[in-house]
Amino acid sequence: MKKKLFFLFPVLLLFIQCNKDDDTTPSYTIRDYSEQVLVDQELLETYLRTHTYNYEDFNNESDIKIKLDTLTDNSSRLSLFEQANIKKIDVTDASGIVTSHNLYYIIAREGSNNSPSAIDSVYVAYNGSLTDGSVFDSRKFPIWIDLANSLRGFREGVSELRTGKYSESSNGTIEYNSFGVGLFFIPSGLGYFENVSAGIPEYSPLIFSVKLMTHTDTDHDNDGILSIFEDIDGDNDPFEDDTDGDNLWNMYDIDDDGDGVLTINELDKNNDSIIDDTNNDGIPDYLDPDN
Q1: Residues 146, 290: one domain?
Q2: Alpha carbon 7 to chain centroid, angstroms
Q3: Do 11 and 53 reside in the same domain of the chain?
């Protein structure tokens, strides 16, 4: 690949769109998260107990592809279930009911550098499939994805990986090595849930294998504060954090406190590299409409 590709930032629309026709009544029953999470958990754990992957190939820094395979009877190989970690993620429905979901993930190779936040831009190659093995999307060559615009399960999984190293040849070609490689098993509540997307039926758990080459810290509104630090309620998730109640989340709001002064102009007016709090009330000026 050429160096110029390093700076492209396309958004993978598959992660945020569905093909559901809003004018037609679905041919299936709408389910609650609390109901579907149990179905998905059983389906995923059955899959994990009966499948394995080529884990022995990931003992070096080269570009290795994950290969999933069914376990045979009396096999001595480790199952996916024996290698999987679980990340608990809460999902809140329209009624405010919170349902905890298990994101199952395997780090085939951790990577050698830093981990992105769950809303950074990442340069990844990946393969997405269903539990029946059918592939609904695949990127052999890496592309840039804004994790803030991707599926909840995908962004939470990718943030567990670390980036790799890269070198540039004399002709401008970039080569990556020792990058993170992971497997993510995503319940439908962290995916499309009742929505239908190309090749993905409603209520489908998803499987992704991902290679994380590099990442870029994001400041979505260019207000001088990285988006991950616009997490006002401290839950490590800046989604729906809205200081001034204007229905524009802080990570996309250039005036977080709604006082008419741009956030970037309230951060550090005296240029001492310290975020300003003029009245010493513990609220920085850019979040305080009284300053």
Answers
A1: no
A2: 20
A3: yes
Kindly state whether residues 168 and 42 are assigned to the same domain. Answer: yes
Structurally, how many domains does the chain consist of?
A: 2
In contact, 40 and 194? CB cutoff 8 Å:
no
Tell me: do 242 and 111 sit in the same domain. Answer: no
Q: What are φ and ψ of residue 153, in 5° steps?
A: -65, -35
Q: pLDDT tens digits for 198-223?
A: 889 999 999 999 999 999 999 999 99
Residue 223 tokens read as 């207000």
Per the listing, tokens 């830093």 go with 114
| Lookup result for tokens 């080569």 | 175
The helix/strand/coil state of 25 is coil
60 with 176, same domain: the answer is yes
- Calpha distance 55→233 (Å, rounded): 39
pTM of the model: 0.86
Secondary structure tally for the chain: helices H, strands E: 4, 10
Strands (E), the chain: 51-53, 68-70, 85-92, 98-109, 121-129, 135-146, 165-168, 174-177, 180-186, 206-216
Task: Give the three-class secondary structure for 54.
Answer: coil
Domain enclosing residue 25, as ranges: 3-216
DSSP 117: P
Residues 50 and 163 in one domain: yes
pLDDT-flagged residues of the chain (< 50): 1-14, 16-22
Examine the domain organization and report whether 201 and 256 are in the same domain: no
Closest CA to 200 of 20, 22, 70: 20
Please provide the size of the chain in residues: 291
Q: What are phi and psi of 42, to 5 degrees?
A: -65, -45
